[in-house]
Amino acid sequence: MSPTLVRHQLPNTGTGRADGPAAPTAPAGVRARDWAEIQERMLVPLYEAAYDRLGIGPGTRLLGLGCGSGLALLLAAARGAQVSGVDADECRLELARERLTPDGMPEVTRLVSGGLADAAPKDTAFTVITAFHPVGCGGDAEELTGALTSAAALAERGSAVVLGGWGPVERCAATGVLRVAERLTAPAAGFGARWRPAGRDDLEELAARAGLRPDGSGRVACPFGYADLASAVRGMLSTGLFDAALEVAGPRQVEKELAEALHPYQQADGTVWMANVFRYLIARTP
Questions:
Q1: What is the largest CA-CA distance in the chain?
Q2: What does residue 225 show for φ and ψ, rounded to 5 degrees?
Q3: What does the DSSP assignment read for 13-44?
Q4: Beta 155-166 vs 277-284: how paired, if at all?
Q5: Strand ranges (DSSP E) for 73-154?
Q6: Superfamily of domain 4-169+195-223+277-284
Q7: Between 14 and 45, residue with greater pLDDT
Q8: Where are the beta strands (DSSP E) in the chain?
Q9: pLDDT tens-digit series, residues 47-72
Q10: How far apart are CA 47 and CA 132, in angstroms?
Q11: How far apart are CA 136 and CA 201, in angstroms?
């Protein structure tokens, strides 16, 4: 029962920087660690809600698309699942390897490099596929649809596919902060904004394009909490949703406007807190 991590070209949700706000020129490994240490944990309630609903545990063979630095895989493995992961970012995958193969643990991880087929457990099929990176947050919809279709072919018939996304705009405080990226990128049509407000049926439309059958959905509170304003800036930049804005407007302008947008959410003790709601859709493979 060995977790497998594979490098595969999927829509990338971004990276971060450990010693200050990140620009696209920052070393990829340093940027990836900001994602792992600051931002990724914000989605734990989403991961846990989906796992609870599906009863993830021993006997589950789970494939994480866009698995990032592996926190969602680690939570599934802790429940007894056999996990595999694919991601476009080799730096994030390296952090996932660190998490899934700590010193002193039995050798439970097989690491391979290649395409989706290399992630499949030997002589078996997946029973659950997850795509937690929010729809509408970077990447190409056609590419993600293709990845889901390919992954579904490696799963048992009727297997669950979990798609993650932002909840209603009015229930996501981070929306106002993310609009900084949308606004700063707008003058340069060639770049295109990496973020857009969530549509009511985004997840259902993606499932339909991938030939999946919807089978229930839910909403989960995923507040974004940071130790201070500087950590909040670094965490938000680590998502990759500001990369295009950084290219267009430059790091200094992006960091300034991002800090201003975050300021209303700073508490008296200096921490930053934004209430958000995320959606998930459970779909089934044909």
A1: 56
A2: -125, 135
A3: -----SSS---TTS-HHHHHHHIIIIIGGGGH
A4: antiparallel
A5: 82-87, 110-111, 126-135
A6: Vaccinia Virus protein VP39 (3.40.50.150)
A7: 45
A8: 4-7, 61-65, 82-87, 110-111, 126-135, 155-166, 213-221, 224-226, 272-274, 277-284
A9: 999 999 999 999 999 999 988 899 99
A10: 8
A11: 11
Mean pLDDT of the chain: 83
Query: Given the DSSP bridges, would you call strands 82-87 and 224-226 parallel, antiparallel or unpaired?
Result: unpaired
Q: At what angle do helices 44-54 and 71-78 cross, to 10 degrees?
A: 40
Q: How large is the average pLDDT for residues 224-237?
A: 96
Tokens of 205: 């439309």
Tell how far CA 233 is from the center of its chain.
18
- Residue 225 is which amino acid? G
Task: Tell me the residue type at 12.
Answer: N
Q: Quick one: average pLDDT of 208-226?
A: 97
The per-residue pLDDT for 186 is 75
Buried b (16+ CB within 10 A) or exposed e, 204-228: bebbeebebeeeeeeebebebbbee
pLDDT tens digits along 91-139: 888 898 888 876 644 333 444 445 677 777 777 899 999 999 876 555 5
Residue (of 160, 4, 1) closest to 81 by Cα position? 1
Q: How many CB atoms lie under 10 A from the CB of residue 106?
A: 7
| Token reading at 61 | 């063979």
| Strand, helix or coil for residue 124 | coil
